[in-house]
Amino acid sequence: MTTPRQRRAAGWLDRTGVGGAVRRLPLWNGVLVLNYHRVVPSARDLVDPGVWAATPEGLDAHLRFLVSDADLIAPEDFDSALTARRGRRVLITFDDGYRDNYTHAFPVLRAHDARAAFFLATGYLDHPRLAWWDEVAWMLARAAVERLPAGPWGAPIDLHRLAPSEPPLATILAAYKADAGASGEAFLDALASATGAGRAPDAAGAGLWMSWDEARALRDAGMTVGGHTVNHPVLATLPEDRQREEISGCAERLEAELGAPMRWFSYPVGGRESFDRVTQGLLRDIGVMRGFSYYGGVARGPRLDPYDVPRVSVVPDTDPAVLAAMLALPGIFGRW
Q1: Residues 105, 56: contact at Cβ < 8 Å?
Q2: How many CB atoms lie within 10 A of CB 131?
Q3: Are 90 and 70 in contact (CB under 8 A)?
Q4: What is the pLDDT of residues 146-189, one digit of tens each?
Q5: Which of 14, 25, 209, 271 is paired with 47 by a 20 to 30 Å CA distance?
Q6: CA distance linking residue 335 with residue 166, whole number of Å
Q7: Are strands 147-148 and 157-158 parallel, antiparallel or unpaired?
Q8: Confidence bin at 324 (pLDDT 50/70/90)
Q9: CA gyration radius, the chain
């Protein structure tokens, strides 16, 4: 995601007209891969507002701008675009498999004749429930205490008076991600007890995820559907056998439901620390051609690591001015 400083700079470029001049600079090689999570009208509709990427109207504005000012490529054109002549090539992706990607994002994509890649965590389609990040948010929203004691999340946490730079949800999620492989369920059990909220019932996830029929509709409309594990763990925190279960299990469900092997995959969480050489080797062994990360940057060939394809996060304040700056100077505005 762009930093506040980058957003201010992008706004200045737009207001002063300098951005237009910058966009006349020489074009660049590679592909800027944009990644969205949830597309909903308001953060009020979310359990965890941190996964809000855009409103439907915001996505529509992004696509109108990209269609007019960039070469918005389809997933099947990605490999050739990596080594093509200079341009301003952009690929759109979505992570997780939330149903709003189908109900809100998909119609906007079709209206612009745009194609994208959707990465699904298959376990949530098979057994709808709150994902771990949503469940953490659910428990904090229902906490019967104002202060958490020390626990797997570290030092005691004041749930109501923590500094804005360290919101409780972000603090607890960061601790979960750091050690999820060793103690994910135990962590959630401890938080359920400490908050007094208990664990979220499966019914809390009703209607949250796509159905397999909806995933097939995406496929039939020319979208690419890839894998995002079964249960969205932080893969590098797992031993090899459990990484294999998450990756192979996801591939098996996608092929069973969609009739094609899993060729693209995005790493849950996606930072440099969230996958490792073991993860990449497992993807290679199962026949995956591209593994997508999530820490910024531009995908440039031909020396691009096929199992570390960088993506840039889209958030609600990613407006057309920020997109324009990314298109003009992706090496600066596509990093964080």
Answers
A1: yes
A2: 23
A3: yes
A4: 999 999 999 999 997 544 455 899 999 999 998 877 678 999 99
A5: 271
A6: 22
A7: antiparallel
A8: confident
A9: 20
Tokens (6 digits) for 184: 């994910």
Assigned token pair, 182: 């060793």
